[in-house]
Automatic annotation (TrEMBL):
Name of protein: glutaminase
CDD domains: GATase1_PB
Cross-referenced InterPro entries: Class_I_gatase-like, PdxT/SNO, PdxT/SNO_CS
Hydrolase listed as a keyword: yes
Record field: catalytic activity: L-glutamine + H2O = L-glutamate + NH4(+)
GO annotation (BP), single: pyridoxine metabolic process
Keywords, ordered alphabetically: Glutamine amidotransferase, Hydrolase, Lyase
GO molecular function: glutaminase activity; lyase activity
Repeat found in the keyword field: no
Taxonomic lineage from the root: Eukaryota, Viridiplantae, Streptophyta, Embryophyta, Tracheophyta
Main EC class the enzyme belongs to: hydrolase
Length: 251
């Protein structure tokens, strides 16, 4: 199996790779899932040239403005955009979703550089502050039909974004019911609420071709279905993409 790259500038990259929790993690769960536990070779990505050695990429959760500044410092944006443009599989979790979105709104987004490619508008910190982080059971029919297992997936939302709108190519995989948590929409500006109007749910997981994005953190649970789904998706894309193979950067 080809090597999976994990952008390792800041945030929960180690949880994706090795399943070890950093002290900054909001919730402690005894055994998180990781690529290592699934027997998948992964590598930390900090430099543009390292992207040439991986077939797919995970952009972890963390703090997207900090991550963006570090990505700028390491001159990673052009290579990340090229990686997406080439059709290589990329999964963004939480801050990673923000990175992949074509447009970000909400708190302190002015001038924040994005990788883009995912035709959606994402709202940073949609569910409120760090203290308003929460867990909830999500219904994800596509995941269950592909991976089996329990009917729901436990979504860990840490100062999470939500997706406000999506383009026609985007497949919506999961919604989060707004009523499931009393703290939702309590961000001081109330921007999300205005933008969402009277709707009682927001989009929290999507797929657009080679791009997968979740507003929550599967790497902080012991349920491997999202990682497995991404690995299958990466396999599908690798197997069917002659353009990737032909430019010789695939493993
Ligand atoms: N709120 C964070 C941001 O805007 C994302 C949170 C997360 O990745 N857990 O970057």
């Amino acid at each position: 199996m080809a090597t999976v790259g994990v952008l390792a500038l800041q945030g929960s990259y180690n949880e994706h790779i090795a399943g070890i929790f950093s002290s900054s993690s909001f919730l402690f769960i005894a055994s998180s899932i990781s690529l290592r536990r699934l027997g998948v070779k992964s590598v930390e990505i900090r430099k543009p040239e390292q992207l040439l050695d991986v077939a797919s990429l995970i952009i972890p959760g963390g703090e997207s403005t900090t991550m963006a500044k570090l990505a700028e410092l390491h001159n990673l944006f052009p290579s990340l955009r090229e990686f997406v443009r080439m059709g290589k599989p990329v999964w963004g979790t939480c801050a990673g979703l923000i990175f992949l979105a074509n447009k970000a709104t909400g708190q302190k987004t002015g001038g924040q550089e994005l990788v883009g490619g995912l035709d959606c508008t994402v709202h940073r910190n949609f569910f409120g502050s760090q203290l308003q982080s929460f867990e909830t059971e999500l219904s994800i029919p596509e995941l269950v039909s592909t991976e089996g297992g329990p009917e729901t997936f436990r979504g860990v939302f840490i100062r999470a974004p939500a997706i406000l709108d999506v383009g026609p190519e985007v497949q919506v995989l999961a919604h989060c019911p707004v009523s499931s948590n009393s703290t939702l929409h309590s961000n001081s500006s109330g921007e999300g609420k205005e933008e969402k109007g009277a709707e009682d749910k927001v989009i929290v997981a999507v797929r657009q071709g080679n791009l997968l994005a979740t507003a929550f953190h599967p790497e902080l649970t012991s349920d491997n279905r999202w990682h497995s789904y991404f690995l299958k998706m990466a396999g599908d894309v690798e197997g069917s993409s002659s353009s990737i193979a032909s430019i010789g950067v695939d493993n």
